[in-house]
Amino acid sequence: MNSPKNKYPGFIDGLKASNINSYKISLNVYSEQIESNISNIINSENISLSVQDNLHKALMTIKSTVDQERTATELLQDYIKFGDLYKSISTDLYGKFDFAILKNIAINYLNIAKFTKDTRVKNLAIEIAKIIE
Amino acid sequence: MEVILLNFFLVFIFGSIFGFSELLNRYPISKYIFKVWQSYLYIFLNGLISIFALLLIKHFRSEELNQISKIEINNIIIAGIGGMMILRSSIFSVKHRGEKVDIGLGTIAQIFLDSVEKNIVNNSAPIRFEEIEKLMEGIDFDKAKNELSTLCISSIDNFSKEDADMLTKEIENLSNLDILNKNKSLILGKNIALHCDTKILEKAIAYLGDSIKIGSVKIESEKAEDIDDWIEKLNKKQ
Fold first, then answer.
1. Which among A2, A18, A126 is the nearest to B172, CB-wise?
2. Distance, in angstroms, between B91 CA and closest chain A CA?
3. In Å, how far are A82, A84, B28, B97, B101 from B117, measured between CA atoms?
């Protein structure tokens, strides 16, 4: 018999997965917009190689979220990974690129946070927004 | 004579407990079981059949009833269990229009159980509707669906994975249903109460207060970290 401690988190995970599955189409749209915006800045000479490397990783991560086969848990991990990577380079990007592009990425990621209803994604999204505020 | 009656009484109680536990097992909303007279009759019938089983035991052992001089624990236990078996037995089964029909006392037990179930559902539905309608009045489904369900579930220690999956699925289906918010909230309340009981739902609603009500205004500390506010702030920035 499972202990209650093992049972309860199942409900939270289920609820999160249900949220993500319900808004999968919208989440894909935001991911695609982020992907398109990052593609516009990725090959710029204005940024260092390490930033470019992280930007590339972030692009790959956000690309993987559009995959229909990804489960809700995998999607959530991808969104968190993207947020972490993008936050780490946001300061370097700010001021060097068209503000409209950075703003679009931040807004789209805020929307992802809104629909996933995950606190970690939300915190990352707000931290990214604060950098370019 | 008193000892004989005491034996009958004990076997009746033992058999009734089996009947009662079966009802409890079948119907999770136990408080409604006692509002239906068929439940009492079913429990009584279980007790009665157990007495019958005791009589059979005495008969097949060729023992006279008046020879009972003490409380016969062994016979009481066997008769209690035996009564349960007799009431759920079927002598044979026939096929009627492609369906298997059991012939025996099991059919009678099933008729009672079906009747109890029907009456429990019929009696509890309006009472629950009224209770939950009052509780869920003015509650915003989108604000409440995650808050209320997690809070109610977290207050139950032995919440099973099956129940959790079922509730999650119900909430997901409800979210995707194009019906009035008022209606969604009522169904949400009903679904949560079914798994957690109305009392817990009531406490959770009281605890969450205005934060899950329609048109509620967020308190300042929460507003500063609100996603929509950040989107608005960035949109204004050139």
1. A18
2. 36
3. 52, 54, 11, 25, 20
Q: What angle do CA B105, B107, B111 make, to 5 degrees?
A: 120
DSSP character at residue B81: H
Find out whether A35 and A7 touch, Cβ atoms under 8 Å: no
pLDDT tens readout for residues B94-129: 776 677 777 777 777 778 777 777 877 777 778 778
Sign of CA dihedral B215, B216, B217, B223: negative
Backbone φ, ψ for residue B101 (5° rounding): -115, 120
| Angle subtended at Cα B9 by Cα B4 and Cα B14, rounded to the nearest 5 degrees | 125
Structure-token match 């029907």, residue found: B118
Judging contacts by C-beta atoms under 8 Å, the chain B residues touching residue A106 are: 234
Contact B171 A110 (CB under 8 A): no
Closest partner residue to A113 among B159, B160, B227, by Cβ? B227
Q: How many CB atoms lie within 10 A of CB A128?
A: 23
The minimal CB distance from A11 to the residues B159, B227, B230 is found for B159
Q: Which of B223, B229, B230 to mutate to test the interface with A (most CBs of A within 10 A)?
A: B230
- What pLDDT is stored for residue A9 in this prediction? 53
- Neighbouring CB atoms inside 10 A of B1's CB total 8
> How buried is B44 (Cβ within 10 angstroms: 0-12 exposed, 13-18 middle, 19+ buried)?
middle
Dist. CA B173–CA A25, nearest whole Å: 16
CA quadruple A59, A65, A70, A72: dihedral sign: positive
Read off the pTM: 0.55
Q: In this predicted structure, what is the pLDDT of residue B219?
A: 47
**How many Cβ atoms from other residues are within 10 Å of residue B3's Cβ?**
13
